[in-house]
Amino acid sequence: AVQAAEKANEAARERLKAEENLNLVKAETEFFKQKMDILTPFASRLAALQARKFLLPEGAAMTVALGEPEADRNRFPLALEYKGQRWPRHWEYRDRNQARDFYRTRTFLQAEGLFQLEERDGVAYRLTGARVTHPGMGETREIALEQPAAFAESGLLGQMKKAYEGSAAKQEEAVKLHAVGVSSKIHRSATTGMEFILVLGGCFQMGDTFGDGSNDERPVREVCLSPYYLGKYEVTQGQWQKVMGSNPSIFKNCDDCPMENVSWHDTQEFIKRLNELEKTDKYRLPTEAQWEYATRSGGKAEKYAGTSDLAALGSYAWYDGNSERRTRPVGQKQPNGLGFYDLSGNVWEWVQDWYGPYQSGRVTDPPGPSGGQPRVLRGGSWASDPGYVRAANRLRVAPAVWSSFIGFRLSLSAP
Q: For residues 388 and 379, what is the distance between their CA atoms, to the nearest angstrom?
C-alpha cells in the first residue's frame, strides 16, 4: 500500500510539473506573438519604403563601358563606375546581328545610379543598382550592384519570428507531454545515467513492408502503441558493471561499448536489480512492436534504423561491412529520426516477446505470444550482413543463449 501511494504521488507530481511547463511555454509563445503583432505592420511599411528605388542628381555621375563581346557566351563585359568604385557586370544578348549594332553604337550607352534607403548612422541612402539605357536601340535594363542595410526593426522582426517559431514548437511538444502526464521527453536513470527518450506512440504498418523479408515478418499488420520510453543507446559495459558488479562481455575494457555475451535471463536479472536500486518496477525490455516502431523513426517506411538506402547504411550502423569484427562504442553513428542510436547493428538486442507467428488484423500494444520456447532478437550486429540489420528482421533464439553478438537496450513504462 505504501509503495502504491508513493507511485501515485510521483505520478501526481509529474502531472503538475507537466502542467506548469505547458503554462510557462504558452505564456512565452503568447509574448512573442504579441511582439510580432506590434512589429509586423511597422516593419512591413519600412520594407515597402526600402524596396523603392529612386534617382538622385549625383547618380548621373555614373559611367558605363562596354567591352569586347564574349561570343561563345552571348554577352558583353560591362563596367559600371561611380565615385571611384567599380562593378564588373555583363550584358547578355540573344540576337547576334542586333548585338553587332549594339557594340558599334556603344558610346551611346548611358547609366544612372539607383538608390535605396538604409539604416546607417540614422537613415541614409545607398547606391544599389544602375539603370543602363541605349537610346538608339531603345533598350533599358536595371542591374543590381549592392544590397541596402536592413532597418533594425526588420532584423528584430526576423529574430522575433524565429523565437516565436521555436516557442510554438516547444508548446506543441509540451501539449503532447502534458497529455502523457510527464514533464520531460528525457528520463535519466539515477543509478546508471542511462538516458531514455519518450516515444509518443502511434499506429504503423509492422512487418515486411518492403517485400524482401522472411515469412515470419508477414503478414504486415497495423499496430497501435501507447507512449513509452526507450533507451537512447544500448546498455553499455559500464552501466552493467554499476548494477551487476561484474562484466562477462567478450570485448572488455570498453565502458562505452554495448554489453554483450548476455542471455535473455541475464537481462531479466539486470532489470530486477535496477528496479530494486531505484525502487520502481518500470524498467523492462521493449516489446517487438515497440522496438520496431522506434527503429523506424516512429513507424516510417524505413528499411534500416534511420535510412532505407543501402549506400547510407554505414552512416547509421556497425555491421559486417565496417565493424572490423568487433563491437563499437555506442552513439558513434548517426541517430535515426527519433534520436536513437545503433538500433541497426552493433549488437543484436533482446526484446520481451516470446517468438511466434504474426497474426493479421489491427492490434494495440501487442505483448507477443503468452508462451513459447525461443525469445526474439532484433537489429543485427557487428557481424551481420545488411539483410539482418533491417528494421523488420526477426531472429528466434533460446533465452539461455549468450554470445558476443547479443546485447540489449531497456524500455521504461510511461505513466
A: 7
Q: Please count the helices (runs of H) and the strands (runs of E) in the chain.
A: 6, 19
CB neighbour list of residue 234: distance below 8 Å, 6 or more residues apart: 258, 259, 330, 341, 342, 346, 347, 349, 407, 408, 409
How far CA 210 is from CA of 12, 150, 315, 360, in Å, comes to 43, 51, 21, 17
Give the Cα separation of 332 and 328 in Å (integer): 8
| Residue 6 φ/ψ, nearest 5 degrees | -65, -40
- The predicted model scores a pTM of 0.77
Q: Cell numbers at residue 415, please?
A: 505513466
pLDDT at site 153: 84
Residue 59's pLDDT is: 79
Q: Is the pLDDT of residue 154 over 90?
A: no
Q: Report pLDDT digits (tens) over 288-342.
A: 999 999 999 999 999 999 999 999 999 999 999 999 999 999 999 999 999 999 9
The DSSP output letter for 320 is: T
Q: Count CA within 13 A, CB hemisphere, residue 67.
A: 14
Cα–Cα distance between 298 and 340 in angstroms, integer?
11
400 membership: H or E segment, kind and range: none
The answer to whether the beta carbons of residues 392 and 207 sit under 8 Å apart is yes
CA 45 to chain centre: 36
Q: What is the DSSP string of 103-163?
A: HHTGGG-EEEEEEEEEESSSEEEEEEEEEEEETTTTEEEEEE---PPPPHHHHHHHHHHHH
302-315 residue pLDDT tens: 999 999 999 999 99
CB atoms within 10 A of CB 151: 19
Record the cell numbers describing residue 254, joined without a space.
570498453
